[in-house]
Write a structure and sequence with these properties.
The chain is mostly helical. Helices cover 84% and strands 0% of the residues. It contains 5 helices and no strands. α1 crosses α2, α2 runs antiparallel to α3 and α3 packs antiparallel against α4.
Length: 101
């Protein structure tokens, strides 16, 4: 809810010429996911990697709308990276090392 408010206020205050409502909703959703991802990262939650995977998928959708192929490739790489990191976390995670100490 906060992200929708901030994004739509930003569009209103800065007088955007963007008329595509789907794009505006996509930007708001991406902003919300990034806030959750950053908070999860700060607290080292295991779900952080899943959150960033959803964020990267949403960014791919946004960049398909914009027609930005370079960013599509970049976010595909980020998805692969977040999946690999998730499995690394499950196998070697900081949580196990912290519990042992």
């Amino acid at each position: 809810m906060v992200t929708y408010t901030l994004v739509f206020l930003g569009f209103y205050w800065f007088g955007t010429t963007i008329k595509n409502q789907f794009f505006k909703h996509t930007v708001a959703i991406i902003f919300g996911i990034s806030l959750v991802g950053n908070i999860s990262t700060a607290f080292k939650y295991e779900q952080t990697f899943l959150t960033w995977s959803f964020y990267n998928l949403a960014q791919i959708i946004k960049n398909v709308i914009q027609g930005n192929v370079a960013n599509i490739v970049k976010y595909v790489f980020y998805i692969i990276n977040s999946i690999l990191t998730f499995f690394d976390w499950r196998i070697n995670g900081d949580v196990k090392k912290t519990k042992e100490e």
